[in-house]
């Protein structure tokens, strides 16, 4: 959902207004949201831990 990313507060407000007016898009989001969450790293403990560890190592290496 890259269209949800905004660089400014004004861009965010515009994006929210457009999304709120697009009933078909909202229905599609609602329909797929649970499956997307289930497929995400948030619901995969092992993958989450691996990605978290990799990010922490990257941060640590950058600070050395």
Notes on the structure:
The longest helix is centred in the C-terminal third of the chain and has 19 residues, at 45-63. The protein is flat. It has helices spanning 9-21, 23-39, 45-63. It contains three helices and no strands. It is 77% helix and 0% strand. The chain starts with 8 loop residues before the first helix and ends with a helix. The protein has 64 residues and is mainly α.
Q: Which percent band covers the strand fraction? A: under 5%
Count of DSSP H/I helices: 3
General form: flat
| Low-pLDDT segments | none
Provide the gyration radius in Å. Answer: 17 Å
What does the average pLDDT come to?
92
N-to-C series of helices and strands: HHH
The secondary structure category is mainly alpha
Number of strands: 0
Largest sheet at a glance?
Answer: none
Cα end-to-end separation: 34 Å
Q: What share of the residues lie within helices?
A: over 70%
Write the layout of secondary structure elements.
Elements: H1 9-21, H2 23-39, H3 45-63
Tag the structure with descriptive keywords.
single chain; 64 residues; mainly alpha
Provide a brief overview of the structure.
The chain is mainly alpha-helical. The protein contains three helices and no strands.
């Amino acid at each position: 959902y890259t269209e949800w990313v905004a660089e400014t507060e004004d861009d965010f407000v515009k994006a929210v207004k457009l999304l709120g007016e697009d009933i078909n898009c909202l229905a599609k989001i609602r329909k797929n949201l649970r499956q997307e969450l289930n497929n995400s790293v948030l619901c995969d403990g092992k993958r989450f831990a691996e990605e978290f560890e990799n990010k922490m190592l990257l941060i640590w290496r950058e600070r050395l």
